[in-house]
Amino acid sequence: MIKQIGEEIDKVFGPGVAMLADVGLQDTLIVAPSRLRELCLWLRDHPKYYFDFLANITAVDYFPEGRFAVVYNLTSIPFQLQLTLRVELAQDRSLEQLPEVPSVSMVWRTADWHEREAFDLMGIYFTDHPDLRRILMPDDWEGFPLRKDYEDPESYHGIPVKN
Amino acid sequence: MYTKYNQGYQQYLEKIQQIGSTEMIINMGPQHPSTHGVLRLELITEGELVKDVIPHLGYLHRCFDKHAESMNYGKSIPFTDRLDYLASMNNSHAFVMGVERMLGIDDKLPKRVEYIRVLVCELNRIASHLIAIGTYGIDIGAFTPFMWCFRDREHIMNMLEWASGSRMLYNYIWVGGLFYDLPVGFEQRCKEFITYFKPKLVELDELLSSNQIFISRTAKIGVLPADVAINYGCSGPMLRASGIKWDLRRVDGYSVYPELDFEIPVGQGLMGEVGDSWDRYKVRVDEIYESVKIIEQCLARLMTDFARLPDFDPRAMVPKKATMKAQNYYVRAENPKGELGFYIETKDKSDIPLRLKARGPSFNNLSVLPELGRGVLIADLIAILGSIDIVLGEVDR
């Protein structure tokens, strides 16, 4: 299944947009961030695959390397297929310039809250997101707690954070 | 200060400040009993009508993802219990399946272990659905079902306490096996419970399902079309009530579910339209009937083919140290609330994950609330929120 999808993507989008990753357990495509949204739309509406259900979005931090990844787990409900998309982002971990990925919340509305969570906890900026603000942490929290080099602040509004 | 990265928050503040002169902002929660926990809803209302719903989460955020990155897989199991604390067995079952798949021991487990897992998971599913139905009744104003549900749930809690030593947060299912075998006489007591419970369930069903007041409050309220449900990532009873036959126990066929006989109830719109609040309630009731069927089959197999042996050790396959190579895996399982997923990415030669993300079904099911809540009455919003059946432990993780 995955080889067929890879070949069709090469035909439609040209080579280099999606590469097969041979990581064993589940079918994974490594996608270039620039064409992500078109590719997601194509995968969602393709009559043979119909990946209409976005199960999960995960942001991964590869500290100490300056590298992040965003992982999309797709499911096709009519054809009972699963596919993993992976976007690799190279970035120098500065807080002034966050790594950027196009938002897919107009393709699947699930992505709205999942992307907000990834932004909140990992500091990935999703361009063209309709409502990108923190979701689990307070709105005025500083830093991105799920990054491996994150350090807790001493206090928050006068409340000691560390016991 | 207006920067690129706080744009969303500034836009939200502007939206709140620019409401019309006839509109009013009402805060519902985080201490409101009908928000089922510490959920805060900001409603923009005009008279009795809700014009917009803005959910605010995070009051119960316990940093599950961050904790899991600093301890090995076995130690994470008690934390997974606390995600959906009404269905702890199902949570640990899903997590444990993922770790076992990555270790490559998922198909080598003894059948007795698998059947015990399914048995306790289905018992816990009944307990979770009983809470959903009981608290939904109390949201609508029916008090009796709440008492009846809690009375029957207490029997399940006592049984699971007997098996695991804890009433709600069990840590019973371990990677590669179980904490202990079932106590002697558990199967018999479980059988007696099922005999007791079956007529009670019919009684409960009759009390609420055809109650005219209940129907008027729930039928044709919060109709969720199937395409919207899929697009918002709704799963479990939410998705099935919209008419989609999608149950991971059948789709993935994990554990011993392929050997068991059960139906997948879907919403039929008997009282109104397909996908309304009444359908979501009814799917849960029907699922209890199916869980009872599964439990009966599990008990029959556990008392005959896979009966207790004196030398049976449920911890025989538990790895001393769950080291694995660098890989990633997304495991999913059917929880009472929907699809619970864990995305696990491992480091090379380490028993501590590099990244572990829990995909709570309630988190996704709740995200459809602004869509359902626009243009309804405030009282109906309570009915819709209750029918979604969220658990805040899982929304905030």
TrEMBL record, chain A:
GO CC terms of this entry: plasma membrane
EC class name: translocase
Catalytic activity: a quinone + NADH + 5 H(+)(in) = a quinol + NAD(+) + 4 H(+)(out)
EC number: 7.1.1.-
Subcellular localization(s) per the UniProt record: Cell membrane
NADH:ubiquinone oxidoreductase 30kDa subunit domain location: 30-151
UniProt key word RNA-binding: no
Keyword terms of this UniProt record: Cell membrane, Membrane, NAD, Quinone, Translocase, Transport
Membrane topology: Peripheral membrane protein
Taxonomic superkingdom: Bacteria
GO MF entry, a single one: NADH dehydrogenase (ubiquinone) activity
Location, primary (coarse class): membrane
InterPro entries per the UniProt record, alphabetical: NADH_DH_suC (IPR010218), NADH_quin_OxRdtase_su_C/D-like (IPR037232), NADH_UbQ_OxRdtase_30kDa_su (IPR001268), NADH_UbQ_OxRdtase_CS (IPR020396)
Gene3D superfamilies: NADH:ubiquinone oxidoreductase, 30kDa subunit (3.30.460.80)
Pfam families reported in the protein's UniProt record: Complex1_30kDa
Self-association state and partner proteins as the record states: NDH-1 is composed of 14 different subunits. Subunits NuoB, C, D, E, F, and G constitute the peripheral sector of the complex.
UniProt family annotation: Belongs to the complex I 30 kDa subunit family.
Functional summary from the UniProt entry: NDH-1 shuttles electrons from NADH, via FMN and iron-sulfur (Fe-S) centers, to quinones in the respiratory chain. The immediate electron acceptor for the enzyme in this species is believed to be a menaquinone. Couples the redox reaction to proton translocation (for every two electrons transferred, four hydrogen ions are translocated across the cytoplasmic membrane), and thus conserves the redox energy in a proton gradient.
PANTHER family named among the record's database cross-references: NADH DEHYDROGENASE [UBIQUINONE] IRON-SULFUR PROTEIN 3, MITOCHONDRIAL, NADH DEHYDROGENASE UBIQUINONE IRON-SULFUR PROTEIN 3
NCBIfam families (alphabetical): NuoC_fam (TIGR01961)
Name recorded for this polypeptide: NADH-quinone oxidoreductase subunit C
Species the sequence originates in: Sphingobacterium yanglingense
UniProtKB/TrEMBL annotation, chain B:
Keyword NAD: yes
Membrane-related topology note: Peripheral membrane protein
Domain of life: Bacteria
GO MF annotation terms: NAD binding; NADH dehydrogenase (quinone) (non-electrogenic) activity; quinone binding
The keyword rRNA-binding is assigned to this record: no
One cellular-component annotation, GO: plasma membrane
Residue ranges occupied by any NADH-quinone oxidoreductase subunit D domain in the UniProt entry: 139-397
Primary localization: membrane
Keywords linked to the UniProt accession: Cell membrane, Membrane, NAD, Quinone, Translocase, Transport
Reactions listed under catalytic activity: a quinone + NADH + 5 H(+)(in) = a quinol + NAD(+) + 4 H(+)(out)
EC identifiers of the protein: 7.1.1.-
Broad EC category: translocase
Subcellular location: Cell membrane
Pfam families recorded: Complex1_49kDa
Family label: Belongs to the complex I 49 kDa subunit family.
Classification via HAMAP family: NDH1_NuoD
Function description: NDH-1 shuttles electrons from NADH, via FMN and iron-sulfur (Fe-S) centers, to quinones in the respiratory chain. The immediate electron acceptor for the enzyme in this species is believed to be a menaquinone. Couples the redox reaction to proton translocation (for every two electrons transferred, four hydrogen ions are translocated across the cytoplasmic membrane), and thus conserves the redox energy in a proton gradient.
SUBUNIT field: NDH-1 is composed of 14 different subunits. Subunits NuoB, C, D, E, F, and G constitute the peripheral sector of the complex.
Protein name as catalogued: NADH-quinone oxidoreductase subunit D
Organism annotation: Sphingobacterium yanglingense
Gene that this polypeptide is encoded by: nuoD
